[in-house]
Design goal:
Length: 420
């Protein structure tokens, strides 16, 4: 019994990032030496992702409602600058992807069997579906993890509960604290979950199927890295007027890492909320911007849609002029905001983008099938980019409103906070 206690103590006292790295290495080794066993431990990863997805909707509802109910009139929330950064980042990502596709044209082998799916036919349909998704009941929104509707109900409840009895607001705060503690417990199991995810993914998929699309992946991942390491830090700097990289590296370690393996922005909401709490950000801000960012901040999706659409045109020999390329940037940016925060959510937007060039739907769905093949890499990088950016922009907006000295101390405390 004492030995088990010492093992548990050593586990809990070790840095979470180090534990995740150990789980990653063990998963790779198991997939290499014992593929059959690696497939079986995939259940651990599946349970971890399901636990995150299960707690996230209720957490968002309770957290946002509690924050708004306790919010004092006149206290700034800094939500607007975060939304502006979301918009600029997504459009910049789409524009970068279009430029990279012209500089490094790629082609596809369009002989893949059609993928199943029901893609939207136009950007109007995407925006229509996004608007319709707001007006659903709270129970249905929670059951389907419809974060747009959850946010709408949470905001409405929070605003009206400002006039509730003090005991009601205390109860909401206690509920928020309870769900936060549940989330902390789930996140502590991330090393075990990532071990299962990595082992099963490598055992089932491997990387052999990716070699034929190495150039396509290089263009796509290269764009995502440029956005993550250059574009987004620039936007954060313009807001904070301080070095954004300590903050960025903290977000990469604690948010992008888990998002990379869960491949779900929705599942990573609890991780981001916990990180914002550790960074001591304004709760009134991050309780809204983090779940909202999981729905509309989709720079990675804009890159995926743009690169895959232009790869299709290069394959078919279709000439794309500058106005059409600009239109593709706009369509990709707006459509990305309607992508659900789940694995592979951006791929079904490809037929809508290729329709701008008159590409047949059957061919477009073959491109979607290719997307599922490379998704083990593409979707992981895409989700990591999307999710950690939510924290970076939220922190930048919060720090940018503070006194310069306090801002610099807060940013520099990020890496230290991640080691606690």
């Amino acid at each position: 019994m004492n030995t088990l206690k010492r093992i548990a103590s050593a586990y809990s006292n070790t840095s979470l990032v180090l534990r995740i790295f150990i789980g990653l290495v063990l998963g790779i080794l198991l997939a290499y030496f014992a593929p059959a066993a690696a497939v079986k431990v995939g259940l651990l990863g599946e349970l971890f992702v399901l636990a995150l997805k299960a707690v996230a909707p209720v957490l968002v509802l309770v957290l946002v409602t509690s924050s708004l109910a306790a919010h004092q009139s006149g206290q700034p929330t800094h939500v607007r600058p975060v939304l502006v950064m979301y918009l600029i980042s997504t459009f910049s990502a789409a524009a970068l992807a279009v430029c990279a596709s012209f500089l490094f044209p790629t082609t596809l082998a369009l002989d893949i069997s059609s993928a199943e799916g029901n893609p939207p036919s136009s950007i109007i349909e995407v925006l229509h579906n996004l608007l319709i998704s707001i007006f659903v009941g709270p129970i249905q929104a929670l059951n389907t993890s419809n974060y747009i509707a959850i946010l709408a109900w949470a905001i409405a409840l929070g605003l009206f509960l400002r006039h509730a009895a003090p005991t009601t607001r205390v109860f909401l705060a206690d509920m928020s604290d309870a769900f936060t503690r549940i989330v902390r417990f789930v996140i502590e199991q991330a090393p075990i979950g990532i071990f299962g995810l990595v082992a099963s993914t490598l055992a089932v998929s491997g990387f052999e199927a990716l070699y034929g699309y190495a150039r396509l992946l290089m263009v796509m991942v290269g764009c995502m890295l440029v956005v993550a390491l250059l574009v987004n830090p620039l936007l954060a700097f313009l807001r904070m007027r301080r070095n954004p990289y300590p903050l960025l590296f903290t977000a990469l370690r604690e948010s992008a890492l888990t998002a990379f393996f869960t491949r779900s922005s929705a599942a990573n909401i609890p991780v981001n909320l916990r990180l914002c709490e550790k960074l001591k950000l304004n709760k009134d801000t991050y309780s809204i911007t983090i779940p909202l960012g999981a729905t509309i901040n989709m720079a990675g999706a804009a890159i995926t849609v743009s690169v895959m659409a232009l790869a299709t045109t290069h394959t078919l020999g279709i000439t794309v002029d500058l106005p059409t390329a600009l239109l593709l940037c706009i369509v990709s940016s707006l459509a990305a905001a309607g992508v659900s925060g789940v694995a592979g959510g951006s791929l079904l937007l490809i037929p809508m983008a290729t329709s701008l060039f008159g590409v047949d739907t059957e061919i477009a769905m073959q491109v979607v099938a290719i997307g599922f093949i490379i998704g083990v890499v593409q979707d992981s990088f895409e989700t990591a980019l999307n999710s950690h950016t939510d924290v970076v922009f939220t922190a930048a907006a919060s720090y940018g409103s503070e006194h310069p000295v306090a801002t610099e101390q807060a940013v520099r405390s990020g890496p230290q906070a991640s080691r606690e």
